[in-house]
Amino acid sequence: MVSLFVGTGVFLLVTVGIIGQAARRVQKLESSINRRAGEMLMSWETVYGGAHGSERTKSFGLLVDFAEKIITRFRKNNSDI
Question: Which range of residues forms the domain containing residue 34?
Answer without folding.
Answer: 17-69
